[in-house]
Design goal:
alpha/beta, Rossmann fold, His_PPase_superfam, hydrolase
């Protein structure tokens, strides 16, 4: 039996010109998660990450917090969907910067609608794979872990969409259920799977034990 730790990236730069960049809080969250792993005596035999900047920065922060270094396998199939491309399929024109609660809610209402249409095969956002191909990229990573890391601990750093998709694939839920899972995943949250060469089994979802103390209450974020 092995254990796969799926980690969502630290807080990125939502609303900024370049979202794919950890904020200062995101960097602290990542280092803190590494400190937590080290404090629990958790080590990793395999390191895998998506190829987005926020994935690599989060992994670097975790390793810094663990006071270790290591090479990782870059897996493009663990990259997040393009939310702007998705929203463009249901809303003409560019959205204003989400700098208020109302605009923030509007952004995610549109994203939910767009994701549902993409999953149903009704739209093909520019520059994005089909939903079936997106799922294949995620499940391919799960297959790789089962085939190559039996009996080991593996850390995967990715985004909310791939994590929700992985959970949905393991539990056999409808695609639409992954939308609700996705919208609730917190930055640097940990989802754990036990795995054998044949299957994965969900152990925990969306946990933030490294931020459980009162001193870290303000470190919890979702974007």
């Amino acid at each position: 039996m092995g254990t796969l730790y799926l980690v969502r990236h630290g807080q990125a730069s939502f609303g900024a010109a370049d979202y794919d960049q950890l904020s200062e809080l995101g960097q602290r969250q990542s280092r803190r998660l590494g400190e937590y792993f080290a404090g629990r005596g958790i080590h990793f035999d395999g390191l895998i990450a998506g190829t987005l900047r926020r994935h690599k920065q989060t992994l670097a922060g975790i390793l810094e917090g663990m006071n270790r270094a290591g090479e990782h396998l870059a897996w493009e199939g663990l990259n997040e969907y393009d939310s702007e491309a998705l929203i463009a399929t249901v809303h003409p024109g560019k959205l204003p910067k989400p700098d208020s609660p109302e605009l923030y809610r509007h952004h995610f209402r549109l994203l939910r609608d767009a994701m549902g249409r993409w999953m149903a095969g009704e739209t093909r956002p520019v520059g994005m794979p089909s939903y079936a191909d997106f799922v294949a990229g995620v499940t391919g990573a799960l297959d790789h872990v089962r085939a190559n890391h039996f009996g080991q601990n593996v850390l995967v750093v990715t985004s909310g969409g791939p994590i929700a998709t992985a959970v949905g694939a393991v539990l056999g839920t409808k695609p639409e259920a992954t939308i609700e899972l996705n919208m609730r995943i917190r930055n640097t949250a940990v989802t754990e799977f036990a795995f054998t060469p044949k299957r994965h089994a969900l152990l925990t979802f969306n946990g933030i034990p490294h931020l459980d103390a009162a001193e870290y209450r303000d470190w919890v974020s979702y974007a």
